[in-house]
Write a structure and sequence with these properties.
Blueprint (H helix, E strand, L loop, with lengths): L23 E8 L6 E7 L2 E8 L6 E6 L6 E7 L4 E7 L4 E7 L3 H4 L1 E3 L2 H25 L6 H30 L3 H7 L19 H10 L18 H12 L4 H13 L6 H15 L7 H12 L10 H14 L12 E4 L3 H9 L5 H15 L3 E3 L7 E7 L4 H14 L8 E7 L5 H10 L4 E4 L7 H4 L7 E5 L5 E4 L3 H20 L1
Parallel strand pairs: 1-7, 11-12, 12-13
Antiparallel strand pairs: 1-4, 2-3, 2-5, 5-6, 7-8, 9-10, 9-13, 11-14, 14-15
Helix pairs in contact: 2-3, 7-9, 8-9, 9-10, 11-12, 13-16
């Protein structure tokens, strides 16, 4: 069974409406079944939930019965040992019988009183038997040479594929207009039948791609909540956003909007997709994709369009998070930093900042010494370089103690080749241990800290662990962020290469 994905750090609230209902009565005559208990499990996007439990199975008879209708969709019969037996449909008709035999479950499946399941069982019987035929083909290659074996398999596979394609085409045509069609359409790939030739005489791959992309969701009704309760809808969504479209934040934003606009605001599909996209892009490790999260928050959550997904408290937390992140997106200009260099560290600490216990005390000390402090400030925007490597680290951080000297060593490769400087910010107040580490490791950086607490570093630069490394351009716009020590050199080389290429155009 699929693992829980929507365990958002941000709370996901899902409420299902119930209407006046007539109930369900599903009997499964499972010949040879040794279970004493079974579960009726429903799909909901990438989750599976127990809808009912049969606690007493007698002579293979499994009964699920209730006074309220079940949610319409695809369900699966699961054993007490959590083995999945088979899927079936629960739609308008919720009172029916299924017969099967444990000796050959698929081929003995029969539905009484439910035409959709009769159709569906016909489909899975055919596909299952064709898969078995494929397995038998391998046995027929024994004793053949590799060349003969390959030729034999290719010919047989071609025939099998043609038979399956024809069956599926005929089946889809015959079942059009039914829920069975809608479910199977979710897993059906939409590919062009007539492909024009490119200039090289081969099939035009660009045409194929755009046809495939543009027809990917053909026939899928995003307003029909039943499709989210199938084993195929979540795979369809994930494949599109992970494999089909260009992996660029602006493209993803455009496609998220398109998909959400296909839904009815507030319906189950809309709510689940909001939750899925929010979690996916807030947690993304791909640089720049936080822009997608900010867009979703601004356009679907903070403005009240996701009231069925998040409660007010969670929306408030999302807004707080987004207000930090929006100022740290790629190409954003970072805030100015007013820092104290190691040169003036002792003087500042003697002013009493190291023993100040409250923000009021710090503020009073600042205004008392402002005339002395002002000439001491080393600011980020004073750094005159094509690139600024902005590093936040702490001298008592074990990971920093490894990464920062590594960064120093790696950057030696670029000395005299690329115009850069390192603005290294100690995020703690400790002066002497920091100063000692700088001397011991011979850190050739602009080494600064903030004993006066003027800059609110953690929130303004989203520092929840250290080290955090940004690369800024000459205007202090973010070109890259959250890099490791190994990535900094390669990123500086890449940025330089991109600029040279653009200058040649």
């Amino acid at each position: 069974m699929k693992k829980l994905l929507l365990s958002l750090s941000l709370i996901f609230v899902f409420t299902a409406t119930t209407k006046a209902q007539s109930g369900y009565d599903i009997k499964i005559n499972f010949k040879g079944c040794k279970d004493t208990m079974a579960f009726l499990v429903k799909y909901t996007f990438d989750q599976q939930y127990i809808a009912d439990t049969c606690k007493k199975i007698k002579n293979g008879l499994i009964t699920f019965k209730g006074k309220k209708d079940l949610d319409k969709g695809v369900y699966t019969l699961v054993s007490e040992g959590k083995a999945i037996y088979f899927d079936f449909f629960i739609n308008e008709n919720q009172k029916f019988t299924i017969n099967t035999d444990v000796a050959d479950i698929v081929n003995t499946l029969k539905s009484i009183g439910n035409k959709e399941n009769e159709q569906f069982f016909e489909y899975i019987k055919y596909i299952t038997n064709k898969n078995q035929d494929f397995g038998k083909l391998r046995d027929q290659t024994k004793g053949k040479s590799k060349a003969d074996s390959t030729k034999f398999m290719n010919e047989k596979l071609k025939t099998l594929n043609e038979e399956v394609k024809k069956f599926e085409s005929d089946f889809m045509l015959k079942s059009k207009g039914t829920f069975v069609y809608d479910v199977l359409n979710l897993k059906t790939e939409k590919e062009p039948t007539e492909i024009p030739k490119a200039k090289n005489g081969r099939p035009d791959s660009v045409y194929q791609y755009y046809y495939y992309k543009n027809h990917f969701f053909d026939g899928i009704d995003f307003k029909d909540e039943r499709i989210v309760r199938t084993p195929f809808f979540d795979d369809r969504i994930k494949k599109y956003f992970e494999s089909v479209i260009l992996q660029h934040p602006d493209t993803v934003i455009q496609e998220v909007d398109k998909v959400l606009n296909k839904c009815n605001q507030g319906n189950l599909i809309y709510n689940l997709l909001i939750g899925y996209f929010t979690y996916k892009y807030e947690q993304s490790k791909i640089m720049g994709f936080d822009k997608v999260f900010v867009h979703i928050a601004d356009n679907f959550i903070i403005n009240g369009k996701a009231s069925g997904v998040y409660n007010e408290e969670t929306v408030k937390k999302i807004k707080e998070r987004v207000d930090i992140m929006r100022n740290l997106l790629l190409e954003s200009k970072v805030a100015e930093l007013y820092m104290i260099d190691t040169v003036y560290g002792k003087q500042v600490m003697k002013m009493g900042f190291d023993t100040a216990k409250t923000s009021k005390t710090v503020t009073d000390l600042y205004y008392k010494n402002v005339d002395k402090l002002t000439p001491m400030f080393k600011t980020l925007y004073q750094v005159n370089a094509k690139y600024t490597v902005l590093v936040f680290w702490a001298s008592d951080c074990g990971h920093c103690q490894t990464e920062i000297p590594k960064l120093q060593e790696n950057l030696k490769e670029l000395k005299g080749k690329i115009d850069f400087k390192v603005f290294a910010v100690q995020t703690k107040d400790e002066y002497e241990p920091w100063r000692k580490f700088i001397i011991d490791k011979k850190l050739d950086f602009i080494n600064v800290f903030d004993p006066i607490h003027l800059n609110n570093l953690k929130e303004r630069f989203d520092i929840y662990s250290t080290p955090v490394i940004y690369i800024l351009d000459k205007d202090k716009k973010i070109k890259a962020k959250r890099l490791s020590a190994e990535q900094v050199v390669e990123m500086l080389k890449l940025l330089e290469s991109i600029e040279k290429t653009n200058n040649k155009k």
